[in-house]
């Protein structure tokens, strides 16, 4: 699991158990906890999985202040797409991943910081 041209790595998994396993695998390949993010459609589920997996949720540091403020007024789907884009993905990729989250899946994103 490596990044190509410094692009973020993403993996969609079926459930929280698989998400924790994916995060552990990323840790073992050299990603720091600060560079791994967990997203689920339900905010509480994102919180629980991130805590269990020793990963992060996308926050102001990654999104920027303006996007974080805008997310307060967006639907959850729009907010998730904005968060995914803030981690280096295109709008098209973000729409694909957000649709997967609609089906109850979990998205793991890892990026190398330099």
UniProtKB/TrEMBL annotation:
InterPro entries: GSP17M-like_dom. This is Heat induced stress protein YflT. It comes from Fontibacillus phaseoli. The lineage of its organism: Bacteria, Bacillati, Bacillota, Bacilli, Bacillales. Residues 10-104 form the General stress protein 17M-like domain.
